[in-house]
Each structure stands twice: as C-alpha cells, then as structure tokens.
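Morning F.,

Quick status update on the modeling queue. The single chain you submitted on Monday has been processed. Sequence for confirmation:
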Amino acid sequence: DNSFREDLKRLVGTVAYYGALNSLAQLVLKVVCPGVPDFFMGSEMWDFSMVDPDNRRPVDFERRIKLLAELQDKEVGPALAQDLLQTWDEDRLKFFVTWKALSLRRGNAMLFTSGAYLPLDVAGLAQGHVCALARYAGNNWVVAAVPRLPLRLTVGAGTAEIPVAKPPVGEAVWADTALYLPPAAPARWQNVFTGEIISAALQKDSASAPNPSNNTSGTQLLAMAEVLGNFPVALLTPTE
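Structure tokens below.
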C-alpha cells in the first residue's frame, strides 16, 4: 500500500523512456556531425553507469555477436521499427540504431571525412523540437533528423501529473512541421532505420521559408510526419 513507491516507479519509468529517446538522438548526431565519433567499447547497449563508461570493464562480445546476427536476419521495415520501439527497454533498440548508423558511415567514408555540413531550417508547429542537418559531397547526401525535448513535445508542459510516455512519431505529433532542403538536394529519400521512402515536396514561393534570404525558389520540404512517422530518429539517404 505504499503509494509513494508506486508513484516513484511510474515516474522513473517515464524519465527512463524519454532519457532513452535523448540517448538515441545523441547517438545519431554523434555519428553524422563533423568529426570522429567517440564510442566507449561495449556502449552499443543501454549503460546505466553513474559515471562515464569504462573501457577496462569486460564486454560480453558473444551476446553482441548473437544480437547482431538476429537483427541482420530481420527485414528492415516499419514493423521491425515499431517492435523495437515498443520493447525500448531491451538492448535491441540502441544496438540497432548503433549498427545501422555506423554501417551508413562506413559505407560513405569520403562523405563523412570531407563532405560539407549544412544545418537545416525547420518550420511548423513543432519546429522548436527538431534538430536536423545534412552532410553532402556532390550527389552524395545524408540527412539526419532527431527530436528535441521530446517529453514537452508529446505531453506538454505545466502538468502536475506523471505523464504517460508517448513516442515522438506520426502526424499527431508533428502536424505541419517540415524540413527545408536546398534545391540541389535529392527529391526522394530512404530512411535507413525503417526502409520507408519519403518524397520531398517543392515549395515554389521561398518568401515563407524560415530564412528567405538563404532559400531560393525551388526549395524542397520534407514532412516531419513522414520523416519520423514510425521511428523517433531518422537517417535519410537518396534513392531513385
């Protein structure tokens, strides 16, 4: 009958959920931003250390090899993405994002070594809740988009009740929010985490763009409701 303990348990569960979302966002940005991403050995899964991970700790490589093989046998798609998100407290979710993000980086070494960096403008009701950027070299592009302050985005601010955790995905969350891409960017993209194809819409009038002086006629828009339609982070690559 300890109501305090029950409330604390629910609060910790909510904090852990949104902490996991923040961890995934940081992971994607770490891989895509300029520079060399720093990974502690064994940190491919959730780590609940009270201090920085320690590379001297033993790592269960056999478990990681088995988990990687299991994920490689699955078809990348919305069904797998939703399954991983629903079982977020298991190690599979972070391991999957780490695997796919590093595989993308390894397969595009020149892009991440010498490609240009472009922060992306965002417009719409939830524009303050998106962090997005592009890396490009010639026709080779990668776009990264992650949520910012996801608890406030999905639940709102000012409530005294312990909120029910909600994933920052879909049209109900993102409404009209969209990323602005330059005219030279590709028009069709594929999310490496879900396999979904996303087509950019053409905005003919650049006057309504966030920074009209930096955008010209022909700016393309990517709807966040599609970019983060089924998964809380996105890495997009061009597709035919």
